[in-house]
Amino acid sequence: MNIAPGATVGALQAGLPLEPLENRILLCHVLGLTRVGLITGSERSLTAEEAERLSALVERRLNGEPIAYIVGTREFFGLPFQVGPAVLIPRPDTELIVELALERLTSLTPPARLLDMGTGSGAIAIAIAHTRPDAAVTALDVSEAALEVARANAAANAANVRFIRSDWFTALGDEMFDLIASNPPYIAAGDAHLAQGDLRFEPAGALTDGVDGLSALRTIVDGARGHLVAGGWLLLEHGYDQAEAVRGLLTDAGYADVQSWRDLGGIERVSGGRRG
User: Where does this protein hold substrate (predicted)?
Assistant: First the structure.
């Protein structure tokens, strides 16, 4: 798409071939404006350089690239997170597991020990550490590229998180935690959603386990008992149709108080249980 130099901000807000929110995000990003500045500067004309840059970004979006990757950031739990092709884009649904973890931390004597498994951008761990700086938060991921992003996000949000490169529990030794939370790969191989929308651009290894969508969840459920103190909680995000299966995994593994919680869309999004 070619945007002509001299086009005004107001005309572009109404005329770009994207959703209104995405129009605003790209305009703010290219012009360095806030949303208020976009409104008050509606008569501003784009320079040739700005028009060329905006044209390129709009074209990338029209080709399907996620808006978060284009601008390089996404807000999660009120905090800005750097994102890119090495990590999943944090989604509002995942805020539920943060809220559930924070609720359980309130009953623990500081410093409560929390582990975030498969941290990606660090969203879960950093949101918790930022809200509860008295907690001892550890986050792990098998991808060094993801951990680099997560470390940068922790520094940018002044969150004290210990990061470990680990294939699930392998690097943890005999460490114990009061709470373990995870948003692991849970999309089954061959699921049509993997070829649709933003998922086409996100790291496949963070989306799918390559088999039935439950293998990573099984690994975490089985291994967490050896790293949770008595009474410690395990919280797992999962797919829209996996709550019953995950509750079954937790029950079969001997967890107590097994239950699921619904996200803002009414979908059972997180299931968990307490180690007896």
Answer: 183-186
Report which DSSP code applies to 268. Answer: E
Residue 184 known to bind ligand: yes
Do 35 and 96 share a structural domain? no
CB 227 within 8 A of CB 180: yes
Q: How far apart are CA 227 and CA 178, in angstroms?
A: 9
Q: Is position 124 within any domain?
A: yes
186 has binding-site annotation:
yes
Residue 185: its pLDDT value, please? 95
- Cα(84)–Cα(201) distance, rounded to whole angstroms? 10
User: 86, 202 in Cβ contact below 8 A?
Assistant: no
* Residue 185 is assigned to a ligand binding site: yes
Statement: residue 133 has pLDDT above 90: yes
Q: How many residues does the chain have?
A: 276
Q: Of 259, 245, 216, 267, nearest to 92 (Cα)?
A: 267
168 annotated as ligand-binding:
yes
Q: 17-45 pLDDT, tens per residue?
A: 999 999 999 999 999 999 899 989 999 99
Tokens of 183: 């948003």
For residues 124 and 182, give the distance between their C-alpha atoms in angstroms, rounded to a whole number: 8
**For residue 42, what are the domain limits?**
9-63
Q: Is 119 annotated as a binding residue?
A: yes
Could you tell me if 107 and 38 lie in one domain? no
User: What DSSP designation does 93 have?
Assistant: G
What sign does the dihedral 132-136-142-148 (CA atoms) show? positive
